[in-house]
Design brief:
This protein has about 200 residues and is α+β, with helices and mostly antiparallel strands. About 45% of the residues lie in helices and about 25% in strands. The protein has 2 domains: about 1-75, OB fold (Dihydrolipoamide Acetyltransferase, E2P) (Beta Barrel), CATH 2.40.50.140; about 75-205, Up-down Bundle (de novo design (two linked rop proteins)). Helix 3 runs antiparallel to helix 4 (about 130-140). About 35% of the residues are buried.
Length: about 200
């Protein structure tokens, strides 16, 4: 099976292998083994890196996916790693996506959302709190928990075409309040605390 995908986690295994968690267009969040991917000359090397975006070919063996071929279209990691707060926020959004995006079901809207978010973050083109809030509210809405509120800013972010949602503007204090709202709503719906968010907040004081 082939699918466009974004690598949300990439973990070293054994001497040369990787275990990746990917957000795929066709089957949502999956984990797959990429054998030999850490070898520099491996055809899987580039496309199995953290925050790589590309075309993956996957084979399924019982309950396990194997990454058999991959072609990277781009890697966001270098742009994110240029600023530790950008990378920390990306790590939180990736963890949130793993929590809220579907498994074994198509996830084209979630993939498009994450690709836009990482593009804006890695290039520094949008305020971090705006990117955070848009991803939080859109992911939780796609998961079936759209906020029931008359707040115009929340409704705009949830209901607008994606390209318009990322153009949303508020004064800094208003954006902070909106970010707190979306963060508290996520916590109430998921009933969990994300370590990645705690770290982002710690370094972004």
């Amino acid at each position: 099976m082939q699918s466009e995908a974004l690598i949300l986690r990439s973990t070293a295994l054994k001497e040369n292998d990787r275990l990746v968690t990917a957000l795929s267009e066709k089957i949502g969040v999956i984990r797959a083994f990429a054998n030999g991917a850490r070898k520099p000359n491996s055809p899987l090397h580039g496309a199995s890196q953290l925050y790589a975006h590309g075309q993956l070919e996957l084979a399924r063996r019982r309950d396990t996916y194997i990454l058999t071929e991959a072609q990277a279209r781009g890697v966001f990691f270098d742009g994110l790693a240029a600023d530790i707060t950008r990378l920390a926020l990306a790590n939180y959004l990736a963890a949130l996506c793993v929590e809220l995006a579907p498994q074994e079901e198509p996830a084209p809207e979630q993939l498009r959302l994450m690709l836009n978010a990482l593009h804006f973050l890695s290039a520094g083109l949008r305020p971090q709190l705006l990117v955070k809030t848009v991803v939080e509210l859109r992911l939780v809405s796609l998961a079936g928990w759209m906020p029931d509120t008359d707040n115009e800013a929340v409704r705009f972010i949830c209901d607008s075409p994606l390209e318009r949602a990322f153009r949303f503007t508020l004064p800094e204090e208003g954006l902070r309040e909106l970010s707190r709202y979306s963060q508290e709503y996520i916590a109430a719906q998921t009933n969990r605390r994300f370590e990645e968010l705690a770290y982002y907040e710690k370094i972004n004081l």
